[in-house]
Structures are given as structure tokens and as C-alpha cells.
């Protein structure tokens, strides 16, 4: 079961974090998860290891809700820890699905945290259940737990490699085991991100290691960025240092392009590309491709801000904060009736009337999924007195569902899959609507055009070009 039926914009699945060889590892992990809060707000968990025993705590809610009590942190001793923020794309919002998942094996304990989505998890689960495996969660991450358990290999690392060779999908993993230590991995095409960092003191040979979904999680704990984990690479960190394995060989890379458009924090650097600059350049490309006479350029906060800055700079039209976001809105605190749902956008965004009244407005946003939110925002801007509203989108039209860890509706519910550009503009109430072109998107990322850039990125949600086999979908299986 996915949660996409309620979505009006895409959501990323999760954030992962791990540290090795640092005092107060759990406290640093909680800080790292706080920096990665944008990647998942439904639940958080940490598993630590003190050299003899594993300790774990997890719960539903934001990182501050789950780990804000010092008494909780005191139950997580050790110099090694992994953590996870969850946004559910498989499995419901239940404590049993909160990661990291932990299991006791004949060789000892093991914990795993996973970002992404397996495209053959239902197929594997069906086979594992037939073998007698008992699943305690409904998340695809548990497949790794059982594949490791039934592996005939001797060492934990060999069992881990045996397991990942059986799965298909887009994923980043951090795993914790007593003997092999902290293990990090990206899928063979590197669709989901994972970066490597070092804690202060590494120049003298005594700084700990860090694994995280984004560099912003390194910054919050003062760690130095070392490099991105390569597609298909496994890194093993223990008392002997760090070693790298590549059991899949070099299959190239297809990093998720939507990380640059929306998911990653703007202060992160992914695959060597600063996210803020990528978004600013997309705005510049939009201004060149779809210029229109207007008085102000207004971002839809927050992901639209850097692109709106780029659009304004390139077009010469003033940038203004015509929409203000309420950063303290979480889940609706009263019964979600239809009337309350209709007020949802106003709870999160409010119009800055003095900026908008009597103005021709260019609204810059990251995407249009169902179109419901875009319609409400356009209506809100018009109600504030705007004379014209022109919508500019920093991604190509989203026409296809994602099966790689981004929660999007099925294709029949994607506005761009069922409407022409003119029909979309009319449906959301905009005077004009334009999306960045494929070539414009890839120029913003430093490539000549899509033909060159698409060899490095996954853009299946725009093109339907799925680089990883959709085993469960083709077999009509649901995880």
C-alpha cells in the first residue's frame, strides 16, 4: 500500500545516517536526522552499539518528538550508530515499520536502514514466505533482513552481498553489525544518494566516519565531506579503517534528477553539484525559454525560491516574497473534513497582499502533480489582487509514476498525463503555464542537452524511461 492517493506533490521516501568511532554517536545521529528531516517526517529511529550490545529507540513523529528527551538519548550508548527518517512509500505508518530494522542472527545482531524502493520486493517476499520466513513489518526493507538470514555464506559481509545481489530497485543502505562494522551501499545505478564524511581529528588519524543521504547532515555535526559513495559501491568501516568493494562492477549511474529539482536541501551538494546553484540555473533557463511580461517573480516556498531568484535575475523582473510559508504546520490538528482540507493550503501558505495587489505575477514552483495545490495557490494569489498569474514550473511535466522511492500517484491521476498544456493552464486557473524543457533542465545541470545528460540521470517520472526492471509491476504484485 502506498500513500500516494492523498498526494498533491511528490514526496521522497527516507533519509539515512550512520557514524563510526565517535563519542555520543547517537546524539550526532539525532542531529544528522534533524538535518535530513525534509526527507521524511512520519517517523524516526536510531540503533547504537556500545561494543557489546545493541540499543534502539524509534517512534512516530519528527526527530525532535522522538529524540528530544535527554533520557531517551541516555538509553543509546556507544560510539557507533545508524539512524533513519521515514516517509512511507511501502507499508503503512506503524511503529513496526519504523527503521532501522534490527534482528538477532546466529552470528549476532544486525541493524539496517534503507532509503528508496525495491522493485522486486513483493516477488522476493512471496518466495521468502514460502520458505517459512515470517515478516513482522510491511516495509520492503525487511526483505534484506530475511535474505541475509537464509544466505549460505559464512561472513556477515558475504551474506550482505548475497542479499543485495538478489534485490532490484533504487536504494541506499546503512547497516550495522558487530564484526564488520558500519556498512554503506548505493544501488548499482546510484539512483538514491549517499555521501561519505569524516569527523574532526581525522588529519591525526583518529576522526570517525559518517555516512548520510546528503551533505547538509555532515555540516550540522561539523564533519568534512569526503566523497559520494559510487553507484554499486559497498563501503565497510570498522577498526581497520575503510575499504571499498564493487561487487556489481561499473554499470554507470542514473542519479535521480528530482533530487536537484525538489527533494534535496538547497544547501546540500550531490554528485559534485550544489543543489542551490542547480535550482537557480533552472530558473534562468525558464526565463530564457518562457519569458512573459510581468511585474514580480514570486516563488512558491520553499523549493521554488532559488529558481525564482534565477528567473528574476535573468528576466530583470523584481523578485518578491509574495507567498509566505508557515513553517510550523505539521499534520492537521483537527478533523480533516472537506472544508478543512480545502483550507490546507492556507494553513501552509498565505498571500502577501501588498506585494501581489494590482501586479502581473509570475509564480515559480517545482512541479505539478494532481494540480489541486497549484489551483489553490493561483486562486489565493488572484484573491490577493493579482491582475495576471503566470505559472512557471522548474521540472518537465510529470507524466509517469515513480517506482524508485518517490511517492507519486498512479499515472491516471497525474494531471500532465491526462491534460494538454492548455488544459492544465485552464484547470489551475493560470493565464499561462510553462515547464522547463528537457534540454533546459540538463543545461542547468551542466550538460549540452538531454541526450547527453540523461545518460547520468534517472528522469523516468517525466519520460517513462525506467532504467531498473519493474519486476513486481510486471507481475502485478503489490508489496
UniProtKB/TrEMBL annotation:
Organism of origin: Gluconobacter aidae
Name of the protein this chain belongs to: Amidophosphoribosyltransferase
Catalysed reaction, written as an equation: 5-phospho-beta-D-ribosylamine + L-glutamate + diphosphate = 5-phospho-alpha-D-ribose 1-diphosphate + L-glutamine + H2O
Family: In the C-terminal section; belongs to the purine/pyrimidine phosphoribosyltransferase family.
Note on how the cofactor is bound: Binds 1 [4Fe-4S] cluster per subunit. Binds 1 Mg(2+) ion per subunit.
Highest taxon in the source lineage: Bacteria
Keyword match Transmembrane: no
GO MF term list: 4 iron, 4 sulfur cluster binding; amidophosphoribosyltransferase activity; magnesium ion binding
Keyword annotations: 4Fe-4S, Glutamine amidotransferase, Glycosyltransferase, Iron, Iron-sulfur, Magnesium, Metal-binding, Purine biosynthesis, Transferase
Task of the protein: Catalyzes the formation of phosphoribosylamine from phosphoribosylpyrophosphate (PRPP) and glutamine.
GO biological process, one term: purine nucleobase biosynthetic process
Amino acid at each position: 500500500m502506498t500513500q500516494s492517493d492523498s498526494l498533491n506533490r511528490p514526496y521522497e521516501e527516507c533519509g539515512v545516517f550512520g557514524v563510526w568511532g565517535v563519542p555520543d554517536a547517537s546524539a550526532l545521529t539525532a542531529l544528522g536526522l534533524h538535518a535530513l528531516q525534509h526527507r521524511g517526517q512520519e517517523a524516526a529511529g536510531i540503533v547504537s552499539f556500545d561494543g557489546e550490545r545493541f540499543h534502539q529507540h524509534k517512534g512516530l513523529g519528527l526527530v525532535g518528538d522522538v529524540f528530544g528527551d535527554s533520557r531517551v538519548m541516555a538509553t543509546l550508548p556507544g560510539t557507533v550508530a545508524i539512524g533513519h527518517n521515514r516517509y512511507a512509500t511501502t507499508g503503512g505508518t506503524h511503529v513496526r515499520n519504523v527503521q532501522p530494522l534490527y534482528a538477532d542472527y546466529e552470528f549476532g545482531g544486525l541493524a539496517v536502514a534503507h532509503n528508496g524502493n525495491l522493485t522486486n520486493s513483493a516477488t522476493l517476499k512471496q518466495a521468502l514466505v514460502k520458505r517459512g520466513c515470517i515478516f513482522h513489518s510491511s516495509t520492503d526493507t525487511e526483505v534484506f533482513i530475511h535474505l541475509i538470514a537464509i544466505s549460505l555464506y559464512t561472513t556477515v559481509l558475504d551474506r550482505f552481498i548475497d542479499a543485495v545481489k538478489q534485490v532490484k530497485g533504487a536504494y541506499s543502505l546503512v547497516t550495522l553489525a558487530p564484526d564488520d562494522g558500519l556498512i554503506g551501499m548505493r544501488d548499482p545505478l546510484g539512483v538514491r544518494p549517499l555521501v561519505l564524511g569524516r569527523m574532526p581529528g581525522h588529519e591525526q588519524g583518529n576522526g570517525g566516519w559518517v555516512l548520510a543521504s546528503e551533505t547538509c547532515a555532515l555540516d550540522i555535526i561539523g564533519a568534512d565531506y569526503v566523497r559520494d559513495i559510487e553507484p554499486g559501491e559497498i563501503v565497510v568501516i570498522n577498526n581497520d579503517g575503510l575499504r571499498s568493494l564493487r561487487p556489481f562492477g561499473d554499470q554507470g549511474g542514473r542519479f535521480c534528477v528530482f533530487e536537484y529539482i525538489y527533494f534535496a536541501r538547497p544547501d546540500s551538494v550531490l554528485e559534485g553539484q550544489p543543489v542551490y546553484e542547480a535550482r537557480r540555473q533552472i530558473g534562468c533557463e525558464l526565463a530564457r525559454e518562457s519569458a512573459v511580461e510581468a511585474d514580480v517573480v514570486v516563488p512558491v516556498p520553499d523549493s521554488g525560491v532559488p529558481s525564482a531568484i534565477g528567473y528574476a535575475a535573468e528576466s530583470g523582473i523584481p523578485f518578491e516574497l509574495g507567498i509566505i510559508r508557515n513553517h510550523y504546520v505539521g499534520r492537521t490538528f483537527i478533523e480533516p473534513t472537506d472544508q478543512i482540507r480545502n483550507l490546507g493550503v492556507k494553513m501552509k501558505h498565505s498571500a502577501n497582499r501588498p506585494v501581489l495587489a494590482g501586479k502581473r505575477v509570475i509564480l515559480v514552483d517545482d512541479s505539478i502533480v494532481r494540480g489541486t495545490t497549484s489551483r489553490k495557490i493561483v486562486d489565493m494569489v488572484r484573491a490577493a489582487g493579482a491582475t495576471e498569474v503566470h505559472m512557471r514550473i522548474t521540472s518537465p511535466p510529470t507524466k509517469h509514476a515513480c517506482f524508485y522511492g518517490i511517492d507519486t500517484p498512479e499515472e491516471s491521476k497525474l494531471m500532465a498525463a491526462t491534460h494538454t498544456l492548455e488544459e492544465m493552464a485552464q484547470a489551475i486557473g493560470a493565464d499561462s503555464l510553462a515547464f522547463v524543457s528537457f534540454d533546459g533542465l540538463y543545461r542547468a545541470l551542466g550538460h549540452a542537452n538531454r541526450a547527453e545528460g540523461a545518460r547520468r540521470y534517472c528522469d523516468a517520472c517525466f519520460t517513462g524511461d525506467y532504467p531498473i526492471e519493474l519486476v513486481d509491476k510486471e507481475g502485478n504484485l503489490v508489496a
